[in-house]
Design a protein that fits this description.
- There is one protein chain.
- The chain is an alpha+beta fold.
- It folds into two domains: 30 residues; 118 residues, Sandwich (Jelly Rolls), CATH 2.60.120.1140.
- Helix content is 25%, strand content 37%.
- It has a seven-stranded mixed beta sheet with strand order 6-5-8-3-2-1-9. It has a two-stranded antiparallel ribbon with strand order 4-7.
- It is elongated, with a radius of gyration of 20 Å.
- The mean pLDDT is 92.
Length: 153
């Protein structure tokens, strides 16, 4: 095999690897690759979260249970079937979280630093149709307050 053929094969291999990495990144911008949930961008004040959106009863019930973590700047967005007082628990959770209750594009409540061992049931302070779970400390770090605007794209 000539040196030109070896160089062509080497360049093709490198380009293939780069394309696979790029495709993986682009795919992860729209869907969580491991769980198949669509990704939504959630903007709260100056903060930005890439959140997996779930809307089926099965996926809402499962939530983040069983996962070791969600990564920095990531979360799970629960698109609830009806506007009501929402109830969440920590069953099966392996890491602490903050829960942000959202209604009509504004924060209506935030439960901060909930331990994975907490056995309480957390109820939204008002009716809400959207719930965002993020890493513990997010609300404090980003000064999330009641009535802060929330934009979901």
């Amino acid at each position: 095999m000539s040196s030109i053929s070896k160089k062509i094969i080497f360049v093709a291999l490198i380009l293939s690897i780069i394309m696979m990495i790029l495709l993986n990144y682009v795919s992860s911008e729209f869907y969580s690759l491991q769980y198949g949930n669509p990704i939504k961008r959630v903007y709260l004040k100056n903060a930005f979260v890439k959140a997996e959106a779930v809307a089926t009863a099965e996926k809402i019930k499962l939530g983040l249970a069983g996962r070791e973590n969600i990564g920095e700047g990531r979360g799970m967005l629960f698109l609830m079937p009806q506007d009501d007082f929402q109830r969440f628990w920590m069953k099966g959770m392996q890491f602490p979280i903050d829960i942000i209750w959202i209604e009509n594009g504004r924060v209506v409540g935030c439960e901060g630093r909930i331990s994975q061992d907490d056995q309480r049931i957390f109820t939204s302070p008002e009716k809400s149709s959207v719930v965002l779970e993020v890493n513990a400390g997010f609300c404090e770090q980003n000064d999330v307050q009641l009535n802060d605007p929330v934009r979901i794209e």
